[in-house]
Amino acid sequence: MKVYRYITGKDDVNFCARVTKALNEGYELYGLPTMTFNGVDVIVGQAVVKNQVEEKDVPHALREALATLN
To answer: What global pTM score does this model have?
Structure first.
C-alpha cells in the first residue's frame, strides 16, 4: 500500500524539520512544493509518499479514514 501525506505549515525551520523527519522515515518527495501568503506568514506545503509493506504500518487515523471509503 502506498501512503500519501501533505505536510503544511509556516515557512520556518519547524516545517523543514517535519519534512526532514518524514524523509528519514522512508517517505519520498512527491511533486513540487507549494507556497502561499496568508497576509502575515508564508505558508508552504509538500506532498510525500511512502510504500508500506504491511497494513499495520499505515497510521491508525489513515486506516480508519480508508475504511469509511469501502
So the answer is: 0.83
